[in-house]
Amino acid sequence: MSKMEINRYYYQFTFKPQQLAEERRKIESKYKNQANVIIRKRGKMLLPKLLGLIRSTPVEQIEDLAQGLKKMEVLMLIYEDYPFPDESLDTVYKINQILTARYSIEVGKTAWVLFQHGYEEPVLEDLLQRIYSIDRFAFLGLEDELQHHLDQAFVNNQGTAEGLAAALFQMEMKTQDVLISLRIEKDSKLEAYLMRELLERGLADDRIIRRDGTDFIVRLLDKYSMDDYKVLIKNYLELRKYQQFHNMILQQAVDRLRDPRERAVDWQFLSSAALKEVNSWMIRKKLQVLFEKDPDNKRLNYWKQFIDYMQHVELIQDPMIAFIYFDKFAVVEFGEMGAAYFYHIEGFNSLIYPISNSSAFRNSRSRQNKESMLKVTEENRNGIPLFIVKLDHRGNWVYKFDYYTREYLNGAF
Question: How far apart are CA 221 and CA 202, in angstroms?
């Protein structure tokens, strides 16, 4: 062939049928489930006859029956009304044999979805076990580590759902990534079961919280009713000291159950020891708010060492003032750096605290005026012990505060 002849068949430009390809994609998208629709429509007519045939076929002949069925007839058995609640268990187990003998990816995918919405059904468990033994859910395309955990789940003595819950607890992979990889449908019964099990086991374990993040845990907890929430959060609160609490989780608990001092009845599900830890966490949080403008956190770090001795901390806004309650005395600390005023608890409750609720205090717009109302230096008033000492935060103030505070904790005024 001459060069001229070659050039007749090879061109410098090529053309792709882009409009045709786009139209094909549209048609495929429109009719991608058309096969299912056709099978379901024909199933209404053909399925009763097929079920009758399966009923009458001895179990030892089911394999031969399965090989003689058309693919449409096999798919009809899992697309239409499975697991057939009106049929006997013997018939449904025969159907499982057929679906296994004539296994296809369509059968596997559909069985996996059905199991997620009815994992407690023994016949679904049976079908899933049979299917998994064939191809280990190859349609999921899992990486080796996740495939290994799935293998373990399917040999769990308490069932596949329990096996999945155990695997979810053991894995290093984040829960959300596992759910996506396993194609577990949102709001399915299986998802709800796995999340409940994850919380019941994982809230006692910081490893799970670190793995999934507190924001994920909080979002899960927020979905539960108050009664269920109390059951779950109890597992978290009873096993930790307040220093080990996660701020997001505790803040959610306080938001839902309110301040224990205001709504004690909502916290009765906790032991007194756990409730004390919650109160200590709230005290620390209030101290952090009080001293947030301090550049060195020195006052915060000082008072934190006495949290276990504190009964309560009450904040007043604008200006920021805190009443720090101990068993036998109370301390008034101010957000603006200054002196702390120590009072006997009886005198504080009857004489100082009422000032903060007075109209003169509430109506004043002067920070200095409000603060001065709470700086009373009378040792007694009307026979009631009141003022103890004023300590400022200058010089080696920590040593001075420490000496007086520990003396007062021991009742030596």
Answer: 12
